Amino acid sequence: MRPSPPRRRPHGSRLPAVAVLLAVTAGCADVEGLQDAGDLGTVHSPQSLWRDIRPEPPAPGQSPGTAAVVPGLPKVTTGSMRGVNAVDVVRADVTAATAQDGGTGRLVDPRAVQRVALCTEAPDGGPDCPVRPPVLHDMTGNGKEELITALDIDGRLSELRVYTVGADGDITRILSRRGVLEGVEVAAEHLAVREPTSNPDYISVSDYVWDPDAGIMNLSQLTLDECAGLTDTPLGEDRSRCAR
């Protein structure tokens, strides 16, 4: 008898991004109880590589996962990012981050300053401005809108940013993420970032939520989505697919 083909998960299902295969008991249960399934082979524990080598901790202020007040911007009295020019915010943030990391790329891509220099003083930055149109959404649950935008670096790589207004009126960056933005989705107070993986059948999904204790958008879940076939759905609509 020809064996049945393997079953595939339906599109949209998610798998754990990191899985560790563990041994299962060498028996099968049926209505009569446990039955011996025979020798299932030798089980090996995970092998730890480079056990004695550890990376150095980041210097103070050198981690993109921390909140940072964007210097050089006027205070916001409304508590909301509505009405704030996104290009001005990104320009000030990129300039400050580049000076802080010394061009190492730890906080922002070294090419970001040259890219944002393409933006003019027009409200939208002009036709050559690589700052994406701003999206306003309450990510912190306080009823005030945060600013979500991104700076496109080279046609593939982008710098994703989320900004909020602090209690003192300062504009603060609460999420900094560099990556290949295959898709960015917002629902309720969740921000999901979809990125391609080395396996063309799957795409990674990073889910960020507001962490009031840390004062940032923190990673809450990392999963894999199965890719659907490529479609002709226009950009800006739900194109649940993977990039080539």
Task: List its traits.
244 residues; five-stranded antiparallel beta sheet; 2 helices; 9% helix; globular; 12 strands; single chain; mainly beta
Q: Which secondary structure elements does this structure contain, and how are they paired or packed?
A:
Blueprint: E1 14-16, E2 27-30, E3 33-36, E4 68-69, H1 86-101, H2 112-116, E5 135-137, E6 146-152, E7 158-165, E8 171-179, E9 183-187, E10 190-196, E11 202-211, E12 216-226
Antiparallel strand pairs: 1-12, 2-3, 4-8, 5-6, 6-7, 7-8, 9-10, 10-11, 11-12
Q: Can you offer a commentary on this structure?
A:
There is one protein chain. Helix content is 9%, strand content 30%. The protein has a five-stranded antiparallel beta sheet, with no helix packed on it. With 244 residues, the chain is mainly beta. It is built from two helices and twelve strands, in the order E-E-E-E-H-H-E-E-E-E-E-E-E-E. About 14% of the residues have low confidence. The chain is globular.
